[in-house]
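Attaching the record inline, Q. Sequence:
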Amino acid sequence: MFKPRLRIPRVSLPSTQRQAPASRFFARRDLHTVPGLSIAGSPSTEGIRGLLSEDGFNLAYTQYMQFATEKLNILTAGTELEQTPTRQIINRTAREPSQAPIFNYASMLHNNHFFFDTLKAKEEPTTQQREAGEEPQNPIPAQLKTSLEASFSSMETLRLEMSAIANSMFGPGFVWLVKVRKAESYRILTTYLAGSPYSDAHWRRQPVDANTMEGPASSEKTGLASEYLDRSGLGAGASNGSQWSKNVAPGGIDVTPILCLNTWEHVWLRDYGIGAGGYGGKRQFVENWWECIDWEKVSNIAMPKRELRV
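Structure, as predicted:
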């Protein structure tokens, strides 16, 4: 990893509060809280070996998740959404222009947690590997590997495609590996900003956050935003988006996200720098990310084990 020249102040919290909202106001109420991670070890004090330092993890997960959680609690306080899981909030607000801020924070909380929860620390090389100058392997479950190779020809092709897409994204967002439910195949999907990969939210125009454009719910309608909304009959620009009951947009597909790469700058900038001169930056972060994927978790999401009923 690459050490930056500028130091970003690190928030120091008691160990009992690191995965909970910092505000005392919300501590009194059973509202949204920062979800825990199943990463082995203690990333809050050790970072994620091979990917993020302790300070990098603190900024990208601890601080950001606390910030987004507090914002979501403020926006949903006193409403029926204040105790609704973020996944359900995404579905219920994706087509509502007036609820764009709620959607954005809920979706970012969900996406960022999904990204981190499929990570693991890079394995330490054995003595034999060190002597041979070899890197430790990150094995992929055989069944998942076979399925992915059927869609992408090889794991190397999948790695190159996801890396190329992430590096070519000019703005922040997420690169997803998704499973097409009916076809039992896999595809790569990109969402920008707080866009969601879920079929329920596909009617929302992801590259352009049309939900933040002025709509009929506002007291006045002026300018290009009003003209756009008037022309749009459905999707993110529609004022009556909630009337559409189908979970999949016309022509859309039903997918299950199984892996996620977060390209937001606050995730990698702290440890990798901007990447000037071809040194560090997002490109190096993406390369390191591939070596820290927890493929067992990905496999469990893609191919959940069925419980035997007696």
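The first helix runs from residue 24 to 27. The domain at 18-123+138-302 is CATH 3.55.40.20 (minor pseudopilin epsh fold).

More tomorrow.
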